[in-house]
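In the design runs reported in the main text, the only information available to the sequence generator was the tokenized backbone. The following block is the verbatim input for one such run; it is reproduced so that readers can re-run the procedure and compare outputs position by position.
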């Protein structure tokens, strides 16, 4: 396998979303434990976390705040990849406001809002390949959600790397052709 570019999802891959979910619960006036339990229930049912707003009968948009909690292994991983002469990108289903929390030394940072397309759309993964300027089989996508990150990356001909962290990463089982990691400390060595 010859990976020349690695692109990372954001939420629960590079960024710990715990404080963000707590802020959402507080803004909605919902006990934090209740919100977390309902998000877990949605995950277990294979539904989007957006379903929680419907269950709670909340008709307000999601809280827009920038991420401020990179996982401790995130920036060192991004640096190792850059030092290994890999093209490094960061993009996920998020608003433009979330792009600001990503280290600026990577080759590109983008958002589904900026691109006007969300995962798991094939167009999202085509855009990743175009941004890297590489062939699909030379591009790895690292993410925690099997249905949003791993399966569509494989369908696009990319190398898919499933990180087992965050609620989705622990509950969902990736297909056997995906590479599996437990920490970003395993990147880029996982490509060797």
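Verbatim output:
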């Amino acid at each position: 396998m010859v990976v020349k570019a690695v692109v990372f999802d954001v939420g629960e891959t590079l960024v710990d979303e715990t404080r963000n979910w707590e802020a959402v619960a507080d803004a909605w006036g919902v006990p934090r434990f209740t919100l977390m339990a309902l998000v877990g229930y949605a995950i277990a049912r294979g539904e989007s976390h957006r379903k929680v707003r419907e269950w709670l009968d909340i008709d307000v948009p999601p809280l827009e705040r920038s991420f401020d909690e990179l996982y401790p292994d995130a920036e060192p991983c991004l640096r190792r990849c850059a030092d290994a002469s890999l093209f490094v990108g960061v993009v996920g289903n998020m608003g433009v406001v979330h792009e600001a929390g990503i280290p600026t030394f990577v080759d590109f940072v983008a958002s589904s809002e900026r691109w006007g397309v969300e995962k798991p759309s094939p167009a999202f993964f085509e855009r990743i390949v175009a941004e890297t300027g590489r062939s699909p089989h030379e591009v790895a996508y690292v993410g925690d959600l099997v249905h949003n990150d791993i399966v569509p990356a494989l369908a696009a001909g990319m190398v898919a790397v499933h990180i087992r962290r965050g609620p989705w990463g622990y509950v969902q089982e990736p297909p056997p052709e995906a590479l599996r990691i437990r920490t970003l400390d395993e990147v880029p060595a996982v490509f060797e």
